[in-house]
Design brief:
Residues 1-238 form the Protein kinase domain. It holds the Pfam family Pkinase. The protein is mainly alpha-helical and 238 residues long. The protein has helices at residues 4-24, 45-51, 57-60, 63-79, 143-159, 171-176, 180-192, 208-218, 229-237; strands at residues 30-31, 84-86, 95-97, 103-106, 112-114, 121-122, 140-141. It contains 9 helices and 7 strands, in the order H-E-H-H-H-E-E-E-E-E-E-H-H-H-H-H. It has a single domain (15-237), classed as Transferase(Phosphotransferase) domain 1 (Transferase(Phosphotransferase), domain 1). Helices cover 44% and strands 8% of the residues. Mean pLDDT is 75; it is low at 1-10 and 168-177. The protein has a 3-stranded mixed β-sheet, with helices on one face. Strands 2-5 form a two-stranded antiparallel ribbon.
Length: 238
Amino acid sequence: MITTSDKLVGEEEDVLREVFIITSVHYHSLMCNSSATVSGANESLDRWLFFGGEERRRLLSCLARCRADVARVLAYLHHECREQILDLDVKPTNILLDGGLRSHMSVFGTSMAIAKEQNSVITRGRGTRGYMAPELWVGSMSTKSDVYSYSVTLLELIAERRSFEPTGTNGTLSSSSKTPHSFRRFMLKKVTQGELMEVVVDAATPDLGAVVKVGLCCVRHMRDERPSMLTVVEMLEG
């Protein structure tokens, strides 16, 4: 039975956790509280990708920069802070675009810090369905959980469609993509059958196949098979 006292202790822990994170990070593309704003904001990446209409075509030329910006932020959080900071809710809704269509990530609410020497931590699951790594459902989380969520977002950027459609409203992809794993299988099938151009937004993107492979590599079911975000940055810039 959860008492009022237990709830208050939990709320206090959440506040202290967020204060620690806010005072620990100093990165130009990070926003560490829910009321922060972006100069010349053009709304969230989610809004641009899925509700932007013809205006979203402006985003096409910035996709490479967008995915690299987010990867660098996560690499910073995981490897360059006093402790490892896990975002635990990487998704297009939490990525804001400024007037120059540069990406800024909001880090608050679900984020937590763990010691540098820890490989993972067991705690209550957090995140958003469709972007959560499998291990989060049993309360085990690590930097590799963010890698998974990043890869789902990366594949959505490439295909300009959601990885998770709970209703399966239209088309082959929607009806077959009840989970991110279905989305991964769909994308992998297109790659192996040489049909990738059928689902990508910008066929002219340099090294498109390599970028898709990065996404597929990072969305693996087994946590230890996913690369670190430092490796992801190297792969994207390589």
